[in-house]
Design goal:
By secondary structure, the protein is an alpha+beta fold. Helix content is 31%, strand content 24%. The strands form two sheets. Strands 2, 3, 4, 5, 9, 10, 11 and 12 form an eight-stranded antiparallel β-sheet that branches. It has a four-stranded antiparallel β-sheet with strand order 1-6-7-8. The longest helix is centred in the first third of the chain and has 19 residues. The radius of gyration is 21 Å and the shape is globular.
């Protein structure tokens, strides 16, 4: 009997081969950022048609974002010239307020805020919260900032990231601190695997358990970013292990919040 082989599109095979080569170079070759950059450029270009697919791919495989884009710049010949002055990242009150929901520093917790292309993100291991950047603001690469430093900023602020330090200008006040040195937890896996649900709640309802403190932090942050008014609505999505809240702020920024849950038995 002739075996029936599954048809796999050639394009899919080509992308998979490019991905495998880039991952192998990432693990084996620390000396040649140029070769790695060429491999990453090939993956990026092959995945260009799907929005944000390249970023989701390298994050899911544990590739450190700053090194990814450093190697890409090497491959594109952009590091031979003197680096331009870093552009400041503009944050508003919705971005800054997340700092107070970052946990205290501990063995398994990180007192920090990640500032990146997707906005500002905090997590304590039980909740994840993110607020997108204000309209017109951009951030080329992610950096991690100590949360006490950001919590002390009032009003809109512009953050400039150097190699080892971050400078914040708010009004007439300029402050500088060292960057946070520990790696930011992998919150992307929670965000990417729990998109907003499209199914409506069944007539029989759903039941689950959630830590009241985690839920309280999530609701408190949601209340802060929400404009006051009876017409404000947030979308709640329930997954088997995560409760997700989505809200569009009055200035168009997106709030995304996640809390761990457990089904009742």
């Amino acid at each position: 009997m002739t075996a029936v082989q599954e048809y796999i599109p050639t394009e899919t095979l080509n992308i998979k081969a490019l991905q495998d080569r880039a991952l192998k170079l990432w693990e084996v070759d620390q000396a040649s950022a140029l070769d790695l950059g060429h491999a990453l450029c090939a993956v990026r270009d092959a995945m260009r048609e799907e929005h944000a697919a390249f970023a989701k791919w390298y994050r899911a495989n544990g590739l450190e974002e700053n090194r990814v884009y450093y190697c890409i710049r090497r491959a594109e010949g952009k590091t031979a010239q003197s680096a331009p002055a870093p552009m400041p990242v503009r944050l508003n009150k919705n971005n800054l307020l997340l700092a107070k929901y970052a946990p205290q520093e501990g063995k398994y917790t990180h007192a920090c805020v990640r500032v990146g292309p997707d906005g500002t993100t905090v997590t304590d291991g039980f909740t994840v919260m993110r607020v997108s950047l204000p309209e017109g603001s951009a951030c080329a690469e992610s950096s991690v900032v100590p949360s006490p430093f950001m919590a002390n900023l009032s009003g809109p602020a512009e953050l400039t990231f150097g190699r080892d330090a971050v400078t914040a200008k708010s009004g007439n006040i300029t402050q500088t601190t060292a960057k946070y040195t520990r790696d930011f937890p992998n919150a992307e896996s929670v965000i990417n695997t729990h998109p907003p649900c499209q199914d409506e709640v069944p007539n029989s309802g759903v039941a689950f358990q959630v830590d009241v403190r985690a839920l309280g932090r999530l609701l408190e942050a949601l209340n802060e970013v929400a404009a006051k008014g009876l017409e404000d609505k947030a979308k709640i999505s329930i997954w088997p292990d995560v409760l997700r809240a989505d809200f569009i702020c009055d200035d168009g920024q997106r709030f995304e919040g996640f809390a761990q849950i457990r089904p009742t038995r």
